[in-house]
Design goal:
mainly alpha; Tetratricopeptide repeat protein; 4 helices; about 70 residues; about 0% strand
Amino acid sequence: MAGRAPSSARRWYAEAAAIARTHQHTRATRLYVSGLIACAALTDDMDTAESLLPDLEQYAPSGFMAGEGTLGTA
């Protein structure tokens, strides 16, 4: 990712995670929180990335897009 991509992606993941939580879609919530963590790390915001890890861990892996669902812990 280059330029504004991480910050734009971070906003999109945050919005998607909020919508998924509202509709109790746990598979998607894990995926979006993981992406949010990865974007925070890419923008050197390690405090936010670390603070979101417990949020990610409350959603069990489902096998749905398993690779993307673990980006945040990488």
